[in-house]
Amino acid sequence: MRILFLCFCLVQQLLAQDYDGRSEDVVIEDQQILLWQSKLKESSDLNGEAKIDFLSLGLRNMAFRHWQKWHDPRVDTLYREIQVSMMEVPGHAEHFKSMINAAQGLRKEALVHARDGRREMGDYSVLASDFWNKKTEAFRTLYLLPSPETIRVLGDYLADDWVSPIPIDDDGSMEQSLAHEAVNALGHMALRDMPVEYKEDSERAQYLVFWRQWYESVKNGKRTFRFLGDPTEYDLDGPASNEKLARIEHDRVRDAKRNNTAGDSARTRAMAVPQGVAGAVGLLSIAIVAGCALVAAAVGYFLRGRRTV
Hints:
Elements: H1 2-42, H2 48-66, H3 73-87, H4 92-112, H5 124-142, H6 148-157, H7 178-188, H8 205-219, E1 234-235, E2 238-239, H9 242-271, H10 275-308
Helix pairs in contact: 1-2, 1-3, 2-3, 4-5, 6-7, 7-8
């Protein structure tokens, strides 16, 4: 009984600690909700890039809470309101592209002056750190903005394989290219029918070829895309026209028929016996039949001979 009592007390203590921890989180979350509700109202007086910069932190803040199993329902509403407010700004994704490219340009310029591959020389180390911070902030914000403009910005980065020749760590580790950062961001976006299933612990390089093929089809007008919770079919310019959707569907059906026809033809050719082989098989069959006839005749002659004797 004493052991049971001690176990009961231990469970109570653990539950109390969890409750106290959760209570503290609830207080912090409530403060953050009130803060960003106020900032969202304040942002109505801002335009363009100023509004994007003002709300970016709040978007990431609410996104983090939105993904938690237990959170205040107000988080979901506020997250969507900030998201919509930012996506209504023309150039919301281009803003982050400009931020990345500017920091990258300064770093490349400093790289020219970094001798012997030593990143501490000149201004390179400072600019490399600044690039890393801005790149991280930009991509973590971009995948929270499901819009055609964001798809275009991330899709264009899929072609950027450049990597600094200077290691990012003393152990010789090299940085990820912007192409791989774009793959990571696209894998986190609220996209329907992704070209490949994204796994957090897997190597990004293996997904790059699939995303490049997918984006090339989107750019060439051969396919559209949709976001989770939104039935609209989009291309890179916005909602796709009915004419475009009809043409894509027509091409899809046509290509499916061609593939089926090609498959049937291939199977027919595989099953068909080549003419030379057919002739050889025919001669072989005749020879076998003739041989069997001779054997049968010989056996019959032998048996008649035994009955005569």
